[in-house]
Amino acid sequence: xxxxxxxxxxxxxxxxxxxxxxxxxxxxxxxxxxxxxxxxxxxxxxxxxxxxxxxxxxxxxxxxxxxxxxxxxxxxxxxxxxxxxxxxxxxxxxxxxxxxxxxxxxxxxxxxxxxxxxxxxxxxxxxxxxxxxxxxxxxxxxxxxxxxxxxxxxxxxxxxxxxxxxxxxxxxxxxxxxxxxxxxxxxxxxxxxxxxxxxxxxxxxxxxxxxxxxxxxxxxxxxxxxxxxxxxxxxxxxxxxxxxxxxxxxxxxxxxxxxxxxxxxxxxxxxxxxxxxxxxxxxxxxxxxxxxxxxxxxxxxxxxxxxxxxxxxxxxxxxxxxxxxxxxxxxxxxxxxxxxxxxxxxxxxxxxxxxxxxxxxxxxxxxxxxxxxxxxxxxxxxxxxxxxxxxxxxxxxxxxxxxxxxxxxxxxxxxxxxxxxxxxxxxxxxxxxx
Length: 434
What we know:
Blueprint lengths: L3 H24 L9 H5 L13 E4 L3 E4 L2 E2 H7 L11 H10 L5 H13 L5 H9 L6 H11 L5 H5 L9 H27 L13 H9 L5 H11 L8 H11 L4 H12 L7 H15 L7 H13 L17 H13 L4 H20 L13 H7 L8 H22 L12 H8 L3
Helix pairs in contact: 5-9, 6-7, 7-9, 7-13, 9-10, 9-19, 10-11, 11-16, 11-19, 12-13, 12-19, 13-19, 15-17
């Protein structure tokens, strides 16, 4: 039974490979888009140049995981006993196979994760040797890259055919994903909780065990399950996912690839948005003397903010044209568990007044809240108040999607990524500038 997921995945890969082969052989010259100078200079935004079957960002319905919307994903996946949220392990099964697992299949995968979650002692020693004021993302990246010596892919690389590269990559992915929550929780307790470490519980699922090791009571286990699921994947073009894919395309192993993913996520333009939103809301609360504002009072504040040339963080999205379903999933949780929290009351009022104002202003293509407008608030409510740690949580979730993508990229034989560059002179000649 331990090989259940791997055998299911192998069957899926064997069925999928002819599709990719046929597209390359018979339709390789078909154009799927054009690139403008604005896209080339502007960070390749909107350029259709990657393939992934793990997730797709629909402008109306939001992110779809293997074709399932977020509400469908949360509804269909088997739930942890006594919990309202699915197993993270079952969600990873979905990302890998495209199938909703049965309860017995999820239990097998959860046991497989539990078998692999022991963190090597040298990783703990390495973390403890770092200065305590080291950023937690630096600690996480250091720990992941240090475990590269464990890579099954590196051990097998010279002994297997390209056809089978995905198999040791799969083993590396499960080994790393099983350990990431333990490493993250260890960093948190070491840095922020007086070095009081909590050992993992072998009887708990991934989300429940993370909450246990963090030392945060229920329903933080459901917070963790939901958080990891919602932040797992967002197509392949965002910095963290693309960094992982790019590094892996050179046949660097999972540890190097996820280390690069973490480093990309640490940038303030990518993974820090949730803490920026929380800091902004707390600043608004200070300006309003922590009184819960009426909708009219908040409308005035928002208009004053916009008219002064500032923005309201957490609203708007480059692709979405409605409220981010990830936000709505967190909103539903918050309405059930946080409705009396003062910060959430501010979030609630902002949710009601900001979109109509942004629509009236006419500058925002999408005036609706995104996932970052609420995620930091939930962490704060449950006592995880260290801003710098929020991106570590993001990293644990994002690794699920990136690992699934890397396994499939290896299985389908995707080559090293190598786009072509042009000089500014060349661009000027194309448009006729002398």
